[in-house]
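[09:14] KT: can someone run the structure on this one? pasting the chain below
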Amino acid sequence: MSDFDEKDIEQEENFLEIEKIASDDRKEEKKDTEKKENEYEDVCFICRRPESRTGKMFKLPNNISVCNDCMHKTMDTVSQFDYQGMLNPSFMEDLNKNMSGKGYPNIRFVNIADLQGEGGIPNKQKIKKKKKAEGTEPVLDIKNIPPPHKIKAQLDDYVIGQEHAKKVISVAVYNHYKRVATGTMDEIEIEKSNMLMIGPTGCGKTYLVKTLARLLDVPLAITDATSLTEAGYIGDDIESVVSKLLAAADNDVEKAERGIIFIDEIDKIAKKKNTTSRDVSGESVQQGMLRLLEGAEVEVPVGANSKNAMVPLTTINTRNILFICGGAFPDLEEIIKQRLRQQTSIGFNAELKDKFDKESDILSKVTIEDLKKFGMIPEFLGRLPVIYTLKALNKDMLIKILKEPKNAILKQYQKLLELDEVKLEFDEGALEAIAQKAMKKDIGARALRAIIEEFMLDIMYEIPKDDNIGRVTITKEYIEGTGGPVIDIRNAGAVNPDVLKQIEDK
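[09:31] RB: done, structure tokens below
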């Protein structure tokens, strides 16, 4: 055999080996694609019901699935079609007239290849199949649930102050997930610990829940009660809060059924006073939420907020979903003060009328009666057994919020300037000036970001112009508008005077 023949054989063997590897890769890719597709239930293209409700479906070209009911209805309609009427002379005459025009009269052709997605239904509107039970392994392992002191210690890294609120929410979440993991204890049914948090705006209600959900690695849905209306009216249905949780769980029903739903601005659905119009976003919404809070099986749309949308529906049991409601409850302080003044109005133990006017933590004295007078119905409050308050932020807490949390605002800007090899520092006087300005705005921690954005704009714009700048120190005078920041150069020489002048002028 010649050298030429040996080379041909060797090349052919290499080619066959490469072809085999490519074939194996295609098979693996096909398996991965099939595996991903098998995670979701088939949905009927006509009625949009999932396979778990309709049973086995008919498979049509282009991955279109049709359920048994819709297929039979379609066949019945086709069998009753008047084919003989199409053969009369008038129809043939109209057909001939339109052959050279726009097409057949009253007939619309559908190109199946033009349908959107696989079978016209994207995965975000499909439901994930339930996993088959393997043995008696619980959904949650009670040994892996962090105890309350560890949950609070993790919250301390991100949330400043609010010690009582962090302790309450840590214990409530721990007890809730013990309940989910164990089910029942000696035939004793453990009820849910739904929570109601009350606090002024900007005190950290939403941030506390977001941090908690991230630490526990459970699906979280945050919704606003102001968009909820009574069924049949414009707005979100009450079940839409559960639909958002299902979307956060990637359409996995089992995962969503042990998630957390945070309903913000819950005080906005209080009973409206002195109104003659129908209250479709107040007391009626509270009544509609009663069965969700207590635990019931509800049908929710998949991938939409309204049941009227042409999307699949699935059933979710809210028994193990933890509901946390939060609100600022404006004017609740006046209701509490009015009740406290009426306790002892005359005699030696009488309270002065202005005794409670200067008390900053008046919300901590709230009772169920105060919330009823505010406009919350008793049945709704009865399903929120854990009620606690958050304190308004004072000057010292605002200073700590600026610099102590892991993702503090100052640390974010320091990281941004580090990328330009510039060190950013704040002296204590500057921090106090920022906190003082935030106190005047009276919107809590939200004011800090607005103030810092205002004076950091010129620095972030001007500093990158000069490569010699190595450090910038924000001073109290710069915050108050009476001076400029202290700029240190990196190398020998002087800082660009134009840069310093532009910052001081602005």
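[09:33] KT: thanks! The first helix runs from residue 3 to 38.
[09:34] RB: yep, looked fine to me
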